[in-house]
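Example 3.2
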Amino acid sequence: MSELSPTDAPSSGREIPIMIVGDSISHGSSGDWTWRYRLWKHLRAQHVELDLVGPKNTLDNIRTQEVGDGDHTYADPEFDTDHDAQWGRPYVSEKEEIEAKVAEHKPDYLLVLLGINDLVWYDADPPKFETNLREFITNARRGNARLAAAFGTVLETTRAVQEPEFALKVAGANERLRTVVKELSTEQSPLYIAETAAEFVAAKHTWDGTHPNPNGEIRIAAAFADVMASGFGIGTPYPRPYPDIAQVTAEAKETID
């Protein structure tokens, strides 16, 4: 690991190692560009030399029933596809793995978008969400004490729109997220919030009520690009207004078994 602090890295003349940590929203599935692609394209356009790192480089094959089977059918594969995202992943399991992944892949920066699975499948309430988040941060720093990170807020889903009680649960988790990130941020290991939920509307920006369509991908990427520019001094904010991008074809998502 470099002797430079994370905030020195943009001017260090080397590729900046960044690991995207997430669930299906960051992993993506058959035929997607992914928000990882949108962010990489934006930063490369700003002449940022970056190296996306992590244990995976695939999409999930949404056309089969198996979860986690690798699929390389990116809409545009011409980017750095390495990542640490997996369908179904929550903070409650990733907190146990992140130290080893940080130590192995040596990112200077984490971009983290997790949480919806904790709330849906693991029935975590906001206090439990906070506990898992704190443990995640502690363990990530064991892998690199000088790690910098940006944490995305939990996105709106169709379920949150339809169920006020679940919407309150999401809002509570995001409130805990903002509080913990502010409290645990240090000069040596700065933490920031990426307001990924701020411009994201499930009815417009997902293809199934949860997972981002191309216009949703842009909004997630923009939130991380904005905080990277303002917090880490990497690149520039994402340009607005956003373009209106064609959707992934229905055929790309059709099941085959």
